[in-house]
Amino acid sequence: MSRHSPDPRVIVSGLLGDERLLRALAERDMGTVFRMLNHRGVSTRRLAAAVDITQGRLYDYMNGKSRVEKLALFEQIADAFHIPGHLLGLARRAWEPTAGVPEHQRADRSPPDGDDLVAMDHFRDADRQTGGGRLYGAVVRHLSDRVAPRLVDMASGPQMFAAAAALTEMAGWMAHDSGQDDLAERHFARALPLARASGDLPLAAHVAASSSHLVLQTGDPAAAVEWARTGLELAAQGPRIPALIARLRTMRARALAAAEQYTPAAHALEAARRDLDSGVDAEHPWLSPFDAAALASESALILRDLKRLGEALHHAEQAVALRETGRARSLALSRISLVDIQVRRRELDAAVHAAHALLSTTPTLGSVRVVQQLDALRGLLEQHKAYRPVSEYLVRFDDARRARMLLLADLIPPSPGGTPA
Questions:
Q1: Do residues 22 and 120 touch, judged by C-beta distance below 8 A?
Q2: Domain range for residue 63?
Q3: If you write DSSP's letter for every residue of 196-220 in order, what string do you get?
Q4: Which of 284, 318, 333 is the last residue of a domain?
Q5: CA-CA distances (angstroms) from residue 185 to 37, 229, 306?
Q6: Is 311 within 8 Å of 345 (Cβ atoms)?
Q7: Fewer C-beta neighbours within 10 Å, C or N terminus of the chain?
Q8: Of 333, 358, 387, at which residue does a domain stop?
Q9: Residue 254: inside a domain
Q10: Each residue of 34-72: pLDDT tens digit?
Q11: C-alpha distances in angstroms, 387 versus 347, 384, 392?
């Protein structure tokens, strides 16, 4: 083998968080997989030799003239490139490690096996970097093709319902990130009974927290308070997970602050901080983490609504500092909050400086939610356009928004008039 052609297994390992690869694997589109490897320097000769096909057949796959159909070839591709079996709808491959893998990820565990957990981790990592819009279809396909058939299997245990609940809740967040809140609400509504059926009360409470977030975003703080209360009641019946309780108390604080119930909101936020600081969490494979960065981000919004802008600014700066690596969408949202608070404090030079940094944050992020919050921020800045640095920034903002909208044209939900919003 030519030493100038990279090892495809190394290339694949570096792409397992790339939503384009995940989507191609979920669709069993091997032509796209081959093209991605070739574009990263793996020669067509090496690709063909690795999977024991001719270069002519490889070119047919890469050019879309034919598709891989045979199970044996999918298995050959997975083994040659070290693609985890679940990403192609295959059983765990012989080379996939089991020693040292947590018990909940081992292949010999009763359904669901580790494939659902590994898939969720991959989806979650990709979502944080690229936004949920372009991953939503892949998650729904995993649910329909890999999870739903096992729900009707009499041998399936309660963990199968937990997997269905967790992935359905994830689909709801991706729909929300795509600007499809009605669809997100339906996913959350389906996830809660699945979580209850599994007997996993922390997971049910986690879904309730997501529902609280969604209804607050759609303008119903009273319903958000009720969802947070429901989540806290569910969490109290299961094993104590401080981060989960902190998340629920934080959602309750956000909803109360939005409803201008300032004193109970402040008390709920302080309780959330105590919960998060109270000790090491019990492990729970399905819950997305709620950490110091998440609490800082939410605290900034709560304290902003409580009119405590100095404290809000401190937490917004902390959230940005904690999110500067590894979480592209969270960083963008934290920077939006930072600029928002600086404008409200009339620190316009600092706001413009932070706003320029914001525009350089993942301009290709596939998140309609980020675009919507950017538009709300623009409306706030518009009130200060008489100040020249702000007016100059708004020109740059509008140029950047037009470019971003072109990239998101396939994700933006149609307006009632039938044109992109």
A1: no
A2: 8-88
A3: HHHT-HHHHHHHHHHHHHHHHHTT-
A4: 333
A5: 38, 18, 28
A6: no
A7: N
A8: 333
A9: yes
A10: 998 888 888 888 899 999 999 899 999 999 899 998 888
A11: 12, 6, 9
